[in-house]
Design brief:
333 residues, alpha/beta, Rossmann fold, seven-stranded parallel β-sheet, two-stranded parallel sheet, 12 helices, globular
Length: 333
Amino acid sequence: MSSNLCVLMANKILVAGAGGFIGGHLIAELLRKGHKDIRAVDIKPVGEWYQHFPQIENLQLDLQLKDSCDRAAKGTEQIYNLAADMGGMGFIELNRGLCMLSVLINTHLLMAARDAGAKRFFYSSSACVYNASRQTDPNMTALREEDAYPAMPEDGYGWEKLFSERMCRHFMEDFGLTTRVARFHNVYGPQGTYDGGREKAPAAICRKVISAKLAKKHEIEIWGTGEQTRSFMYIDDCVTGIEKIFHSENVTFPINLGSAEKVTINQLVDMVESIAGIKLKRNYKLDAPKGVNGRNSDNTLIKKSLGWEPDTSLRAGMEKTYAWIHDEMTKRK
């Protein structure tokens, strides 16, 4: 092992939001790479985390509080901030105040990172920062990083993310804290939320199809017309992208982290029906939260900066996600 790698492995790492879907997968990857000195923090009791690794330090803390952030950041050199009060569109559109309060997490954690002498800070932003006027057409042009301005993001959640991006930029300019920001586009995969109101479209559709199949009631409810377009990034690509962006020396700006494979929600339902071997009657709930009409990731910048982009096909990722949710639901049943 090289001396540089030994130094890297010795650095204490903080993963905020460790009990969440992405946080759990990130910690699993860090452990696979040989990192051992990891502090995992989440507001949920440890027993409720999606993935739990007893060999590392696990803390239940409310990171909206400055004292909790100070405790979490103490002695750390690398910080990943994945913590936020968020969920799918059904949660985001109905809980704008709660989403906005997540600004306290990133603000206090940046202050704690500065005071602790941390070397590097990652912030998980979202495609919800993009100007809504560029997302009114399902056939919209893929979103480039500069399309976040002039600012008109998703109300609540998007404004919090855009403000926190600026905080990261100014802490790098004013205090010398190296910050990296990725704009996530709809992350999905196994070991995540698939019911309860915070799930995103891929998991929700898997759950609905599986429920219909198990109940032998061949109907499915779809929010909106089903013609709204999205891209969905498999969790393995997300974790790989986080690590590449975090350790990059030239990605000093917010950057898209998402798949460029665009589909309609109806096409996503087609895919899950094909995986399940079933065909369902579709009932469209037109008054349900559905988000913007069209959103997709332009990956020109990430390919130029890193020579890489998320490349797991939606079909391959959905097959794995469907299998995991099916196993969970049948075990529960």
